[in-house]
Structures are given as structure tokens and as C-alpha cells.
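Shift notes (night). Ran 2-hydroxyacid dehydrogenase while the centrifuge was going.
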Amino acid sequence: MRIAFFSTKPYDRIWFEPMAKDYGYEIYFIELPFSEETVFLAKGYDAVCIFVNDHVNAQMIDTLHEMGVKALLLRSAGYNHVDTRAAKGKVAVLRVPSYSPEAVAEFAMAMLLTVNRFTHKAYGRTREFNMNINGLMGTDLYHKVAGVIGTGKIGQAMIRIFHGFRMNVLAYDPYPNSNLDVQYVSLEELLSKADFLSLHCPLTPDTHHIINEKTISIMKDGAYLVNTSRGGLIDTQALINGLLAKKFGGVGLDVYEEEEGLFYEDCSDEIIQDDNLARLTTFPNVLITSHMGFFTVEAMQSIAHETLENAYALENNLTLKNLVE
Ligand code: NAD
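Came back to this:
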């Protein structure tokens, strides 16, 4: 099998190159993102392998189909960046539904602890021998209320972590899991009671801007919000308004609704055109990271293995357990 691999970073090659050899697959690593301009580079390949900010529309699906590309191998769990309806019957869309839920949940907790205890600011201060701790006061997590929106694989890992901190955990999910040791409540109740809120639902038409002007107004004053799921879950303008009104104790964003073209790239020499992102970076209680919740050794190994297993299943007409219907 020949695979055209888009949005390649050095850390992708480390895992994929040796593993692909074991499968006998040839991978063409391309640094460019997958787009309407680059789709033609996939000519002559059996499959295209893409990441979270490679958007695939119906026209690109048709082009792939005409070129004989059989599969889109997603190096991600989320698939909101692919027009899966257009792909049906033309190109098989295969994802990696679970690689390390703990990687993302642990990162969400790291963000929460950072914005709460200002370790990011303390690090800068002590490096300059400013040992003053004014303005760095946090709040205990012990016995506080944690709210989890979406109790799938990552949400469950998050609940275990919150329990470890002896927090009282509330959850909201339209499909509650009765096996979980957690109290399900309505979205409104969760928003009104949570001191610390973590988002773990996928981006769908239902969840788009689930955090908006109205839902922010229901939240407790001083609440902490962490989003490691998808940027589109939060209405950025409403979040900025809330931050300006001092609604939040702290906010951690690993994802951002306009992250495409910015996240994963070094833009340090460029004039940033995105005013909302620029504004967000100015708040002392906001921590932004570049969609890296997944980024652990275990997760990268698992993504490479599962992606190549998906290719193997397709090539050998086996059951496609990770097919996005
Ligand atoms: P999952 O499919 O196991 O769980 C998603 C849960 O969300 C399900 O329980 C589902 O019922 C629930 N849900 C659906 N609609 C909802 C709604 N309207 N309100 C509340 N809950 C709703 O997915 P997962 O593996 O736990 O991943 C969750 C998300 O995390 C992914 O969709 C992806 O966007 C994101 N993610 C981010 C990173 C990162 O690096 N930051 C890495 C992996 C995944």
C-alpha cells in the first residue's frame, strides 16, 4: 500500500517510518497541509493520511475518488474536519477512536492546575529572580465541584482524575453511562454548580458553541473552564466578553475555533491577523496551548499503530472497525 501523508511534522516520522516498514507500506511524507491546492499530490496513492486541521470537503472527496484513492486515514479521534457524508461509498474514512484518553485528560488537569496556581507566571518570575508571589494566589480543588461535559473515553479519565483530587464530580451527557461512578445532572445544573468545568464532547451541530453568552451567564462567578476538545465548542467572542467582565477564575484552551493554519506552525515572525486570539493571549488568567493534549509517547505510538492497522484492514478486506459511517 502507498500512503500520502500530509501535515507531516518530525515527530510523526519517528513513529510512522519504522512501523510502516514492518507493514511493507510506502509512505510519502508531505509537510504541506491537505487542501484543495495539495489534494493532487495524492495521485497514484492508495490512501491519504491527515491530521485534525486538514479539512476535507465534498469536492476534495470527489477528486480523491476520481484519482483512485481508497481511504482517508485520520490520525485523530475527532472527524468533524471531514465531510463524511460526501465520502460515503467513495472513500473509506478511518479514524483512531481511542489512543490514550489519559493523555488528554492529564493535560486538561495540567492546564487547570496551571491557570489556578499560576505556575506559568511563577516560572517566569523566578527565572528573573523576582521571588514576589503577589497576584499568584490560587484556590484549593479539594471538595470543590468539578463539572464534566461529555463522559466518553476522555471524560471518564477526567472523572477519575477529579475523584483523585477528592472533588465532587457532576457530569452532563445526553447519553449517560449508568456504569460510571458519577452524578449526572442537566447542563444548566452543571453550569450553575461547577467550580471547575472541563469539556470532553465532540464538535457536532448540537455542541457547536455549547459555551456561549447564555451558558456563560449561568456559570458561577470565578469558575474555571478548560477546553481540550474542539475549539468550536466555545463562542470565542462570548468568552472574551466573559473574561473582560471578570467572570472566570481562569481559562485553559488547548483548542481554538480558528486554529487552522496557526496551531502546529511557528508564526513567531508573523503579524498575527486574528484579533480574538491576540486578545485572548493578553489575559493573565488564560493559558493557550497548541492542540497538544494528545502529545505523549504512548499516544503517538498508538496513533501510528492504529492508523496502519486501519490501512491493513482495508487492504485485506477485513472488518473496518474504525470506519466513520
Ligand atoms: P468519545 O466519543 O469517547 O466521547 C464523547 C462523549 O461526548 C460521548 O459520551 C457522547 O455521548 C458525548 N456527547 C455527545 N454529544 C454531547 C452533547 N451535546 N453534550 C455533552 N456530551 C455529548 O470521545 P473521546 O475520545 O472522549 O474524545 C472527546 C473529544 O476530545 C473528541 O471528540 C475530540 O474532539 C477531542 N480530542 C482532543 C484531543 C487533543 O489533543 N486536545 C485529542 C483527542 C480527542
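The longest helix spans residues 297-315. Residues 77-78, 98, 101, 104, 149-155, 172-175, 200-204, 206-207, 228-230, 254-255, 291, 293-294 surround nicotinamide-adenine-dinucleotide (CB under 6 Å).
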